[in-house]
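Sample entry (134 residues):
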Amino acid sequence: MRYQRAETPLKLDGLAAAQSFFAGCLAQGDPAREELWVAHTDERARCIHVSRHQGDESGGSFPLKAIIADAVTHGSSGIVLAHNHPSGDARPSDSDCRVTRRLAIAAEALDCAILDHLVFAGDQYTSFREMGLL
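Predicted structure, serialized as tokens:
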């Protein structure tokens, strides 16, 4: 797991901004290994914290407790997630959907919303928000 602070107030105020930001983040990693990026935003969709959680060839890590702890620490109003599928299929898996729902329920208790969850596979991506899953 690697943490980094967003130095400039990047705005993640829509799908295009999130897609562009996370495509750049995921391009830094090994496309054969699944990894999850998490961006926390304030009430004006400004990115206030970013973390990366590495998985392996068989799957990714989805540290629910750590994501919620970061939301509390940073006073997050929103969370945007992105991860890659080394398989080449950008469709969310059943597991992706279950864990995102669990996170949304936990975040709601903190008045924090899951703004979107993007799944990347090569040049393709899907958005939970666009698919009506959030």
